[in-house]
Amino acid sequence: VEAVHLIADGKAPRIPQPKEGATYEGIQKKENAEISWDQPAAALHNWIRGHDKVPGAWATIDGQVVTFYGSSLLDASVPAGQELAIKGASRPGLVTKNGLVVFGNDGKMVLVRNLQFENGKMIPASKYFSADETTALELTEEEKKMAEDIR
């Protein structure tokens, strides 16, 4: 009760909290989440996983900021895939049927499952090279007639 009265009267002591021992981390900003490629695979995985979902760990691919989501350590032989140059990486990534494989400076691998582009479009990493492909819709004669009737 005494503390409440001190606060109400504006006489409560104000003791600043010391910085020593504080565990709060400020809000992460996107510009601070760029991936530093000169690290072991476990550190890369932890960085990507630690920034998943906000703000998202990112790297530059083909001059565009690409955000990486859904990483896991890959303990297997190097899979077959199409090479993808990543700015700052000592070794190109591999786009495989399971996702994007990136390499740590220890030669071990990290599998990234999803990628998001600057325009907000998210794709499975395994579809990186087929993301721009579009298929034309071909209608049967019956469907063409139905489309005309609808028009």
UniProtKB/TrEMBL annotation:
**Which InterPro entries did the record assign?**
Formyl_trans_C, Formyl_trans_C_sf, Formyl_transferase-like_C_sf
Tell me, what is one Gene Ontology molecular-function annotation carried by this entry?
catalytic activity
Which species does this protein come from? Eudyptula minor
**Pfam assignment, any one:** Formyl_trans_C
All copies of the Formyl transferase C-terminal domain together span 29-130
Q: Which SUPFAM superfamilies match?
A: FMT C-terminal domain-like
Q: What's the protein called, per UniProt?
A: Mitochondrial 10-formyltetrahydrofolate dehydrogenase
* Membrane-spanning parts: none
